[in-house]
Amino acid sequence: MQEKTMRTKPTSSGAQDKPKANDPCGQRTSGMGTAAEVPGMVRMRKTKPFFERPSASRTAGTAVLGSASSSAPPGLVEALAQAGLGGTAASEAALRHVAERRAEELVEHLEEVVGEGKLLDAGWLQMGKEEIRKKLAEIFTGYLLEIHQIVQVSDVFNDLSVPCRTWRRPWADALVAAHHARQLWAPHLAVAQDFSQLNALGLGCIVLDGMVPPQLAADAHAELEQMAQDGKLSDFSQSTCNPGSRHLWLRFAGPGSDGDGLVPPALATLGDALAGLPGALEERAREVQLSSPRLRIVPNLMAATYGPGSHYVPHKDMYSGGSCGFENTRMLTILCYLNPHWRPGDGGELRVFNTLREAPASPGPGRRVPELLQITADHSESTTTTSHGEAFVDVEPLLGRIVIFRSREVWHGIQPSKAPRRWAVTLWVLADGQPE
Ligand SMILES: O=C(O)CCC(=O)C(=O)O
Ligand SMILES: [Fe+2]
C-alpha cells in the first residue's frame, strides 16, 4: 500500500488542459440512463432538505414552483395529504383531481393567492374567476406532478443506497490508515507528513497500490473485455468532454442486481470491496478526530473504457444541472484501474491538477429541480469557472491501482489513450444528508 509511479510536470500542457468556460464535463453526456440508475443524480440534501415529503403538519413547501412563486401553493400539500396521496402510488389522475379541487376552493379566497408577492400577481384580478381557476389548476397540477416525481426518484434512491458505515469490509478496514483519511480530508495537514507529489498539489487525493489481489483485478479485466465483446457497452460518447469513451453500469448489490447475471463475479467482488473503503475512511477519520462528511454508498460501479484518441478534458465530478438547478451530491470518486498490459506510452493517464481556491463545494441547499427526470446533458453551469492551476500529476492507470479523491474539488482529466481499451471502474460516494 504505497504511493508510487507518478510523473509530475510543473507546467501547463496547453489547450487540452484548459476546460472551456461553461464546460459541461462533470458527467458523461451520452447513454446516462435514468436518474435512478446513476449514482448521485438525485439527493441534494445536506442540512436543509430541498424537498420534504408532503405532510399534513407542513404549511409551506420549498421553492419548486419557480416561475409562479417561491413557496408551495397554499394548502395544496395539505390537500394532498388529506386525500391520502402523500406516497408514491398516487396516479396522475388523482393528483390532477386534488389540484383541480384546491383551485376551485381558492377561487373563493382570491386574497390568498392573488396580489403582490403571491402566487399570481395583482394583474390577475382583472381576469374572470374561471380563468383564474384554470390557471391555478394548471399551476397546482404541475407542482404536484413535479414533487410526485421527485418522491418517486428519491424513494428509488433511498432503496438503492446505504450509509457507508453500514458497508464495512475487513479488506478495506485493514488497508485504510489514518493518514489516508488525513490526505483526503485535511490535505494541508497531510502535506507536513507526506511529501509525495500528489500531496504537494494540496488536494484531497490518494493513490493506493497493491491492495487489490492481482488475480481478482485480472479476472475483472477479462470480464470487462467479455462484456465489451458481448455488446454491453454504450455507444461511443459524442461529447466534446470525453469523445470516444464507452461505458456500462454494474449494479453489484441491492434491488435489481440479483440473478440478472449482469455483473460477473470478479467485478461484483471488486465493487463490494471498493464500497468498503468510504466506511473505513470515515472510521479512521473519526479515530483521529478529523472532521469528515458522512457518506452514502450506491452499489453501482461505472466501468468506462477509452480507446485510441479518446480522452476526458479536465473536469470535476461534481456538476449541477445549470438552468435545471440540479446538483449532484458526489463527495468521493473511487477509481480502480484494470489494465494488465498498460505500458508507458500507452497514454490514458489520469491527470490530477492542483486546485485553486474556490467557494466551498458542499452539496447545495434547496434548489429547483423541475426537469429532474429529464436530465440528460444539461450540466453546463457546473464548471463555469476554470479554477485548476498549472501544476499537475499524471497517474498511470495500472492494474489494481486505486485512486480516491474529493469529487467536489479535484480537477482531473484523462490523457489521450493510445491503448485499444483503457479500463477503469468508478464508484461515486455520495453525501449522506439523512438526519442523524
Ligand atoms: O478513468 C479515469 O481515470 C477518470 C474518469 C473520470 O474522470 C470520470 O469518469 O469522471
Ligand atoms: Fe471524473
UniProtKB/TrEMBL annotation:
Pfam families: 2OG-FeII_Oxy_3 (PF13640)
Domain Fe2OG dioxygenase: 296-431
InterPro entries associated with the record: HIF_prolyl_hydroxylases, Oxoglu/Fe-dep_dioxygenase_dom, Pro_4_hyd_alph, Pro_4_hyd_alph_FE2OG_OXY
Region (Disordered): 1-39
Swiss-Prot/TrEMBL cofactor(s): L-ascorbate
Keywords, comma-separated and alphabetical: Dioxygenase, Iron, Metal-binding, Oxidoreductase, Vitamin C
Origin: domain of life: Eukaryota
Coiled-coil region list: none
Membrane-crossing residue ranges in chain numbering: none
Name the UniProt record assigns to this protein: Prolyl 4-hydroxylase subunit alpha (Prolyl 4-hydrolase)
Native source organism of the sequence: Durusdinium trenchii
